[in-house]
Amino acid sequence: MSQIKPFVAVVDDDDSVSRAIKRLLRSGGFEAETFKTGDDFLLMFDSIPSYRPVCLVLDVQMPGSNGLEVQRRISGSGIPVVFITAHDESGVREQALLAGATAYLRKPFNDELLIKAIRTAISTTGK
After folding, report:
1. Which of 22, 28, 99, 109 can bridge 105 by disulfide, Cβ–Cβ 3.0-4.6 Å?
2. Quick one: average pLDDT of 8-14?
3. Is 0.85 surpassed by the pTM of this model?
């Protein structure tokens, strides 16, 4: 009997980062789906009401809707957000955390720290 693994959505325009996070999440007991842009994720999120990951890992800077915009658009959904970024600006960090992000990690990040941030985010939302 197979057990359903919780799934995490990863939104990052860098394919190598997305692939690495997907592998990391799978090794940590999660399923993962990747999106190249915030707009791609929002299309799925808005089109399929049952599409609800247990956590969303978001890059800050992407073409189209950036991570902060995606976070704003899904606010109220109960999906915890973990930000990852190569461009750590204190104003952006503060904005993300004030809007409810559970973690804000700078690339390159420690793999164990990302997994711990996701597990903490999920446990604080009760999913």
Report:
1. 109
2. 96
3. yes
